[in-house]
Amino acid sequence: MSVVGFDIGYQSCFVAIARHGGVEVIANEYSDRRSPTIVTFGEKQRMMGISAKNQQVMNFKNTLYGFKVLLGRKYSDPFVQNELKMLPFEIVESPNDKIGIKVKYSEGEKVFTPEQVTAMMLTYLKSVAEKALGKPVVDCVVSVPSYFCDSQRRAFLDACSIAGLNCLRLLNETTAVSLAYGIYKQDLPGENEKPRNVAFVDMGHSALQVSICSFQKGRLKVLSKSCAGIGGRDMDTCLFMRFAEDFKKKYKIDALTRPKQMLRLLTECEKVKKVMSTVTNPQTLSIECFADDKDVTGKTSREEFNTMCADLMLRMRNTLEMAIADSGLTLADLDSVEVVGGSCRVPMVKEVITDVFKREINTTLNLDEAVARGCCLQCAILSPSFKVRDFSITDTQPYSVKLRWQAAIEGEEGEMIVFKPGDAIYHSKVLTFYRKQPFSLHAEYAEPANIPVSDPRIGTFFVKDVVPTAEGEASKVKVKVRMNIHGVFFLKSATMIEKLKPEEVELPSVESMDTSISEPKPEEPAEGAGDVDMTAPPEPAPAPADEGEKIDTPTEGMDQGAETEGTDQGAGASSQDSDSSPNLENKADANTKDGKVGKEPETKKPKKPTIRQVDLPIDEETPSLRKTQLTKANEAEVNMNYQDQLETQRTDSKNAVEEYVYSMREKLESSLSDFISESDKESFRSLLSSTEDWLYEEGEDQPKKVYVERLSQLQKLGAPIERRQEEHEGRPGAFDLLGSKIVHLEKILVQFDSGDEVFNHIEGTEMDKVREQVVAKREWLNTNMAACHSLPKSTDPTTTCAQIRAELKLLETACQPIVSKPKPKVEPPKDETTTKEEEPESEEAAKEGEKMEEDPQPTGDNSKTDDMDLD
């Protein structure tokens, strides 16, 4: 199982992976850990990341960026209509008021949805992770802004499915930052101690997110969240509007109506903003050949920039104060303020944060990579492949969700709020309806003004196969609604409660009953963690929720409408009869007191089951793509990715031919000049020139096979020349090695002939074999060395380095075992007379000698030495 975290921001992306050494943010093919969130379409190939950014100005109509904010929105959304003014590519309206992005791709016009474009970026990030891990990547955790609503989260999940990824969790960005901060802390307070409260401020390129969290050992709880649609791009826009107005007056150039000039000016404004964040001097903006062959220039200062962004800073201040108020804490209760996000580097942003929280800010975490690291840690927690410190996360959802339904009485409509702001994510509630026929539930946001999209609808859910009871009355239907781990609302299940007829009741036989005394077993928990079906109380009043949560109860329409039966948040909860166990124990004690041990206890008459639960099918209409649509989009993504790979291979083959042409042309005039004849050099030059002309004419767009064949033809002529050079440079060294070995063996033969003791153990016949080999190799060396020296460099050598090394190996194999033969070991003869004289005369003398050795008597200075040793 892969452990990967993806952080897809408005402007940049990061990929974090888990290895046994810890969490690591990995680099792309350009050795950069930051990948721009940009996708460019060419005639045959897509480009993502840095390669796409390099094409942004030249191919601006087919270069897509900022598509993250389009996810889950309608085309008629006022936010989308406002974005169209600043986006240079074409956005069109698709069926059902959806967004389409039109580009030129594969020799025609294509329309892609924001989900498909996001999936393309995920596919690229997936390939980066696979290259680093060396294995396929499927499971992952992806970050989303904490203010994303249901339709935007569903769109992100659809994008993951299109990219072939199994998203284990959509993790809120501020929660990911909190996890990356808290999981490594060793000094967090215990469960019974006051928690550590930390404020996290994340200001990126498009949004500001604030969360206040409490930390205890192995525990993280989100207390409040607050968001605003302001970020670094809004500061860039302030500078852009100022310079665009100046250039319109001074140079008669309207950058707002020229997409290419707009992109260039936005890029330069971002650079000026970054420079002003580090220096206080006024800065000059200059662009050469901006438009109409005119160079433009402008000037601004940090004070002027702060004045431009005063409204943005006021909105930021209100957002920070709202987060503090919603948390229920005071400034004195906060232990720390942590900042992340690239825009937090701007000085005026730091000043506002410091002024609101009345304390210095901390940069404990990496401002750019903290979100990706948190996502990877969450994936590691969910993965069985890694052992991670226990750390629970209690996240919340920010919006009120209500259900509407048509009441049983015609003309009436019921509704109730099922989830409130601050309710935990991964949270369920059970509602009870009384119906005679199938019915529908409409989920929507109760406060449309607070959500980031214009359409408050979440979805419509149809509960089917509802029938009246046998008596013709309304059936009791229990519906479980859930806010799942991704923060997405859906209907978990619907169950119809049927009363059984008397003839349908089966009474268990006495023989099949177990009358032994045993402890009662708790009921099995319901399916899924955090999914416990609460039994309806005997009274209409709702049961108390876990952790003191208040249950929402409708004030009207409860008769034959809906009623809340309970909530569930935890896992493993169960209910059991508290009176059953004590009764059994009492009966056992009574039998023991009466002395009637072993008597079978009395058995109660089993209760007859009177109801039966029937699961009901549920159909839904939500913004999520249908299974068939996901399959079709996934197939299209796979095909485009395959086409990208083929095009990359084709381009690489073409570049290999071009590189070989330029490389050989330079070498023919320098290092290879002496290793080819003048006639061959001229013909080779002509072939290289014709190949170059072919590359830029009919060879501009050829299949990979054609380029491979061209390169092979060139290498047939170039390889022998390069081989001659290699042989010429390597042959002297090979001859020297062989000559040194021959000289070494000749010296050994001289020592042997002079009777040297080192070699006198070797037989003469064996040394004769060595002599024969040395004489033969000496003759071969002299002959071939002279022949090679007499040949010109432009001809192939008669003797290669491989042949010389082979002769050296033959010489060593034949001679080395002989000359390195070790001398035989000679043992000296034993002297029997000396041995007998040294033996003791008797056993008594031997024992006496042993005793003296074992128990020596210290005399003289020996006693002093022992005392020193003891000390």
Outline the biggest β-sheet.
Answer: 6 strands, mixed
Oligomer: single chain
Q: What is the CATH superfamily label of the domain at 4-194 and 363-391?
A: ATPase, nucleotide binding domain
Q: Which fold name corresponds to the CATH topology of the domain at 4-194 and 363-391?
A: Nucleotidyltransferase, domain 5
What proportion strand? 15-25%
Give the terminus-to-terminus CA distance: 63 Å
Overall SS class: alpha+beta
Q: Radius of gyration in whole Å, from Cα?
A: 42 Å
Question: Can you characterise this structure?
Answer:
With 871 residues, the chain is an alpha+beta fold. Among the domains are: 4-194 and 363-391, ATPase, nucleotide binding domain (Nucleotidyltransferase, domain 5, 2-Layer Sandwich); 401-506 and 530-572 and 608-621, Sandwich (Substrate Binding Domain Of DNAk, Chain A, domain 1); 627-717, Substrate Binding Domain Of Dnak, Chain:A, Domain 2 (Up-down Bundle); 725-819, Substrate Binding Domain Of Dnak, Chain:A, Domain 2 (Up-down Bundle), CATH 1.20.1270. Strands 1, 2, 3, 4, 11 and 12 form a 6-stranded mixed sheet that branches. It has a 5-stranded mixed sheet with strand order 18-13-14-15-19. Helix 4 links the parallel strand 11 and strand 12. It is elongated. The chain starts with a strand and ends with a helix. Mean pLDDT is 83; it is low at 507-601, 834-843 and 849-871.
